[in-house]
Structure to design on (596 residues):
């Protein structure tokens, strides 16, 4: 059943060709610009905790990882709750969250094969400095952390969208989350470049586990202990956010007014 | 066991009042006056399996709210509903698999894809076997005459075509209970009639229990042997449509068209106390005649002048309902 939902979303996404080509370019261009800025900075002789090859590896991989862990559902959830579009989903014997999981996966399946050639092109250009892990163990850990990161991001977004059961307008909150999230997830700047005093906070906050953590595994900047702790946090956030979601929906549906129809 | 049992069901909505203008909006930031409206109050009724029941009432009467509580979209504020042996608000999958709700103004079809894709999704969601799916699909698509349209993107369908697809989709899992909220809204007369015939067939052939709300009296007249009249959240009538008509309108409408105008004085003497209904045509008169006097009055009218046309009809149901909602309490509570 879930696979059918994914396929449907693949089909719907393909209907909007132009919009996701633009999206693709965006996904690659933004990290590329950041990369060029940092390379210039490090060439000026500024001492940074990352060397040239770490920057290159981080930003080249960033576009793929950030696409694969991205979510865009909160405004849709909020709108469905506020305007009553949720009703037709509630009538089906399948939880509403599955609808978005299908949408999320379906769109990513379309985007990935389009994104990879672009990223490969960038990688080719920077091939002299690109250092990918050679140990299968590192890739295995990455392969584990990546779906967990996608799950944390997805659940966090769903929980925020679900606040629409009580809040008239969650769009401000969504914008705030996107802004703070981009910074704290390592989307703009690798978390390793933050002041060392912030390390404890950065490790504990959820956004690290939506993007930065799998990237850190690939750039090889984590000790085995830090890796184990990271996985513990990631799994913890998954479980905690799932519990939040269940709780919010249990009480939220009581106040749902099924407006309009 | 009845398909639906409703005991003293109530629903109260909470909302806040905003004073007009910007000043009011700002004041609302700090202090909100919370108000409650009772959308449904103490409604009780039962529906047996296989019945078609129509919900009648003006806008905001509580029809849709009741329907939503019965299919589990809304939590009742008070009272109880049991539907097919389940408590709807719990939304158990076993319950959801047996019901369907069609909303005239909402879609469950995937906008960018042909309806067939949504149907395939429902096949999986409702665990319909391949043979059942093919059989139901073929049958429903043929009756609704949409076989050709199954592969057309939903957003390219006309309103009537889309509505038929909604019906098809809502019935593909053969629900035991079908809720319809304004199923014919916005449709042209021909499509309305198709949809009505289709619903009647579904009820007859598959024993599907149907509960529907509609603004179109024709829907109710053609489909529903039994009606529930609801207004201001309260149930005002539960019984056969015919007995509602008899009770609310103990008279028939007699219309006559004369060859030449009849002097008003002659009319007045011949018709006495009878109520004349307004007509646009000066040659035409229309009277509300108590049932037992119909034959007598018809005789008197025929003697007034040369009559070109004469008809004696039941009061249109629409008119009865309108009169009833203007003066609530004008009919007895229950049949």
């Amino acid at each position: 059943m879930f696979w059918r939902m994914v396929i449907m979303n693949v089909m719907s996404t393909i209907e909007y060709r132009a919009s996701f080509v633009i999206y693709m370019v965006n996904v690659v261009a933004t990290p590329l610009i950041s990369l060029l800025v940092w390379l210039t900075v490090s060439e000026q002789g500024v001492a940074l905790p990352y060397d040239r090859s770490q920057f290159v590896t981080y930003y080249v991989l960033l576009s793929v990882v950030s696409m694969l862990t991205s979510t865009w559902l909160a405004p849709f959830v909020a709108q469905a709750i506020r305007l009553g579009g949720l009703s037709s989903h509630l009538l089906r014997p399948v939880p509403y969250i599955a609808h978005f999981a299908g949408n999320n996966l379906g769109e990513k399946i379309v985007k990935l094969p389009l994104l990879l050639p672009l990223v490969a092109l960038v990688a080719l250009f920077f091939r002299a400095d690109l250092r990918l892990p050679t140990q299968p163990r590192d890739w295995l850990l990455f392969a584990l952390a990546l779906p967990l990161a996608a799950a944390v991001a997805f659940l966090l977004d769903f929980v925020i969208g679900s606040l629409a059961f009580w809040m008239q307008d969650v769009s401000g909150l969504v914008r705030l989350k996107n802004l703070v999230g981009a910074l704290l997830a390592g989307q703009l700047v690798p978390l390793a470049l933050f002041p060392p005093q912030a390390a404890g906070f950065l490790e504990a906050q959820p956004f690290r586990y939506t993007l930065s953590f799998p990237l850190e595994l690939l750039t090889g900047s984590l000790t085995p202990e830090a890796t184990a702790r990271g996985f513990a946090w990631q799994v913890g956030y998954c479980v905690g956010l799932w519990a939040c979601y269940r709780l919010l929906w249990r009480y939220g549906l009581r106040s749902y007014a099924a407006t309009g129809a | 066991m009845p398909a639906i049992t409703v005991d003293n069901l109530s629903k109260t909505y909470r909302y806040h009042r905003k004073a007009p203008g910007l000043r009011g909006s700002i004041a609302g930031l700090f202090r909100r006056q919370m108000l409650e409206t009772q959308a449904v109050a103490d409604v009780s009724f039962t529906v047996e399996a296989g019945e078609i029941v129509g919900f009648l009432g003006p806008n905001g009467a509580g029809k849709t709210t009741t329907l939503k509580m019965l299919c589990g979209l809304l939590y009742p504020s008070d009272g109880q509903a049991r539907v097919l042996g389940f408590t709807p608000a719990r939304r158990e999958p076993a319950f959801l698999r047996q019901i369907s709700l069609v909303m005239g103004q909402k879609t469950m079809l995937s906008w960018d894809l042909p309806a067939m894709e949504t149907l395939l999704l429902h096949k999986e969601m409702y665990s319909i076997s391949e043979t059942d799916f093919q059989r139901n699909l073929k049958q429903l698509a043929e009756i609704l005459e949409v076989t050709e349209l199954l592969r057309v993107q939903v957003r390219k369908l006309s309103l009537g075509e889309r509505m038929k697809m909604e019906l098809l989709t809502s019935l593909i899992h053969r629900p035991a209970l079908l809720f319809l909220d304004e199923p014919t809204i916005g449709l042209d007369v021909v499509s309305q009639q198709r949809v009505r015939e289709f619903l009647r067939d579904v009820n007859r052939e598959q024993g599907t229990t149907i509960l529907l709300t509609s603004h179109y009296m024709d829907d109710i007249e053609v489909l529903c042997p039994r009606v529930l009249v609801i207004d201001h959240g309260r149930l005002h009538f539960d019984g056969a449509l015919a007995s509602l008509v008899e009770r609310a309108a103990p008279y028939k409408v007699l219309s006559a068209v004369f060859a030449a105008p009849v002097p008003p004085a002659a009319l007045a003497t011949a018709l006495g106390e009878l109520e004349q209904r307004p007509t646009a045509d000066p040659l035409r008169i229309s009277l509300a005649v108590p049932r037992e006097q119909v034959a007598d009055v018809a005789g008197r009218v025929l003697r007034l002048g040369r009559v070109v046309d004469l008809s004696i009809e039941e009061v249109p149901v629409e008119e009865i309902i309108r009169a009833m909602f203007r003066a609530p309490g004008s009919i007895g509570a229950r049949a």
